[in-house]
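Minutes, project check-in
Item: structure for the 355-residue chain
Input as provided by the requester:
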Amino acid sequence: MNAVIDTEKLVKRPSNKEVSRAGEIIRTSTDDQKVFEAISVLDNWRSLHSTPLNAMRKYVMGVLKRKKFSAIIGQRLKRMPSIITKIKRFEGMSASRMQDIGGIRIILDSISDVYAVHTAITNSKTKHEFIVPPKDYIKEPKKDGYRSLHQVFIYHNEKHLEYDGMRIEVQLRTKLQHSWATAVETLGAINNASYKTGEGGEEEKRFFKLASALLALKEGQNVAAEFIDTPKQELIKELMTLDKKLNIISSISGISVSSEKISKYIAKGCKYFVLELTITEGNKGQLTLTSFHLEDDARLFYKAKEDATRSLGNKSVLMITSENIKNIKKAYPNYFLDTQYFVKELRKIIESKIS
């Protein structure tokens, strides 16, 4: 796929003041034209993160290779609906200071690997700064049960100042932690509710809090503050009661998207992908994956898709960078509605109580 690229538009960097102002307009304005123009400013700002994001991915992968760590790597630019939701959700959030517009995800086998890799990427020689302390949601899980280690890097480039100072977030998590986050997003896709931003029913959110606590105990890690004094058997009992009422485990395990046919249509040598997930009637998932050789082409296509689907609650669009389809499915299983690992591990925990 080819497109005419307006490189000047893509490279010109809006000032921090312009970006912050755009965020304020999105948060407060009811003027559709002003909001549209503000979103365009933020889209330009987001696009500029591609260069530092690619550079940080290269740095991280180099460290992993030298230290001989086995990991699944994912890379993405934050979805515009997610950017807008975050701006509206947090009143003091300045769009120019948002730290996760460009994100790299590292999925590892164990807790020890998470901390070892974090030490390696922050101790290796680099011109980029890392913000300390990192946000350790493993030692101190979020109230909703989210667990992961977040490290923000400040990218530096003396030759190209339009990228200098941009922030890239690296998320490090275990496969078990990743499976929980995937299950949350999958149920959100089914119910058209972003549970991770506070939407959705209280009982569904309670279910995932309990599940997170049980998985944390399985890994020998801290649970969210409200469960510190709750015995494991009581956590299991409450989770089973909620699941009997809500049927969450069956719901998320009964929906999936096959990637077998998709992989046949990926052009050789492509590493930029736009994923479009549609939830159809009967909770069936339909995934369209479009591949590109050139990042600029992928970015323009991504923006067009976002604009076209912004008001459609049953659609979700994401642009990512990956070497192959298998890595995409492992790093972003929520787009394939793949919750098998989460369901398997949760059922083991439930069965341990029953037996």
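Outcome recorded: The longest helix spans residues 50-67.
No further action items on this chain.
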